[in-house]
Amino acid sequence: MPSLASIAQGRLVNDHRPWPRVLVTPEIWGAVAKELAAGRGALLGLWGDAGASCAVHMAVMAEDTKDIVVISLECSEEQFPSVGALHPPALRLERALHSLYGLRPIGAPDSRPWLDLGFWGVQYPLGARSAAPPAQPYEFLPVEGENLHQIPVGPVHAGIIEPGHFRFTASGETVVRLEERLGYVHKGIESLMAGTTIESAAKLAARTSGDSTVAYGIAFARAVEAAMKVEVPRRAHYLRALMAELERLANHFGDIGAICNDASFAIMHAHCGILRERVLRAAQFCFGHRLMMDQVVPGGVVADLHAKGVAFLKDALQQFRQTFPRLVELYDNTASLQDRTASTGIVDTALARRFGASGFVGRASGRDFDARKNPGYPPYQELNFDVPVLTDGDVNARVWLRIREVEQSFALIEQIIERLPQGPVAVALDMGERVGEGLTLVEGFRGDVLASVKLESDRVVQCHLRDPSWFQWPLLEAAIDGNIVADFPLCNKSFNCSYSGHDL
Amino acid sequence: MRRTLFESLVHGPLTESPPAPNDTAIAELAARVDRAARRRLGRSLAIREVDAGSCNGCELEIHALNNAFYDLERFGLRFVASPRHADVLLVTGPVTKNMREALERTYRATPDPKWVVAVGDCALDGGVFFGSYAVVGGVSDVIPVDLHIRGCPPSPNELLKGLITVLEQVSG
Asked: Which of A116, A186, A320, A353 has the fewest CB atoms within 10 Å around its CB?
């Protein structure tokens, strides 16, 4: 059987790195969509382009060889054959593509807008922008049955969380359908980036999803470096990985505590909160910012790690290694807590694979994928770590997966500190008259962040960022199916999808 | 669990002493607070957080206010689930066009007297997102703001400073 990458034949685009981008015919575009639907590949991203000629781009990864390829299709009459018609994970991406670019997926089963809630005053802001027609009321999917009631939740939620709308349909206490409506925090990042300097675009990338600012920083920087063929000093790679693992630790500590808190087990929340705060203080001490925002820049990192920082980190790790196992034991030995988390909000393995779900959502449901290993990027090839995978797919599995990843991050940080190479932490970017394109996958705490960048000398022509949440939000709808309404906060927290990263 | 609880008793709290109120913030607030309201609130404020378009960075630091180091509730400040229970709206983000109506409705649902604290550089004027087709601008472009807390994101200490200032001014 030919692999997905070999099917994706067409005219090779120059200067797209490190993976090929090919211009394809509608037939090949359709053939690739069929391969995705048959489970022989994972969809990594689907986005539009309003350059000289309208085009759609699709990044895919072959399931067998793990080869990555981007295929591009020029759109005649502002339309293209729908991928979502064959492969549902593409549906929301296509709806967003239509709302933002005005490019219509032909044959798509769902033509409702996505991200565009009717308040912008313009339609197709990234394509042929024009004044918006009067907004139509949004139609949620119809629900039929006896004794059903609906619960609308949001956009303003009850906690300190991001806005989004959830429409529950319940029979008694049991959820029979959840439908999400997102886009409330859409800030138009892609349009702000277009035509701006690399420096300003990096600032926007770092503010795509605040909890993953390091991951986005690295993704944007690596895409720019690939486009410009820039080699970053080894020490910079190590410092980036150090920041990424600190970010993972901080978020996982916070999540483990918050999930337990949503099951009313406050003591875990309190203790995990202390661990999280200690990570942020270590970040502040070592890099001068608690979330390490703007510390990763194209070319390297901003600040070097000083000897006192290394000592601070070693101390902190020693503390974590003492405290964390006791909290794990506490989680493991509290039956009343496990009663809430075990067998709640199950994501089926086949569904996780079909959606190409990454991060703890995918790996707790048996999808063995971690961008640090595959495709892999420096310095992770030089470090020893495991990618934990579980198969239960419930809230409990997502907690345990985070616990196991925390342990791996401890080991990674220790290795990074131990092996930190000497030398500079950044190189100057040589701004020429060159044109280049770069694509990258970086493993944030939540999953793989995709960044695609097109540069012309020192300007960003286009930058598309795809948050892992795109392929996790739909699974939350499936996970809550058949669970009681009161377990939704628990399920939602165990997913911890990004609103801002998704809405862009 | 017993061991963890016992150690908490022996080791004493991690909670740190509070920062002093912020002088410039006092000046910004002083004009807006009337004495009757101060008496009514009695050193206790209920806060409703509204994300009007933030990147989630500010939310993370607002969350941190509840951890053992900052322990916001010792000041009589607590986060509530509904604007109907709130005295203070803590608003983050550049206000996106998609959130404008939700923010206005949340403001209207909050009973008087009420105060609005805008958190973060984006909440001041839209920050790096200023000028986008999808962004209105700062919080004060949509609802009246009593105090701005700068930062990207502001640290929990800066947030605490701002909130203590509000508390001192409205209930002092």
From this structure: A353
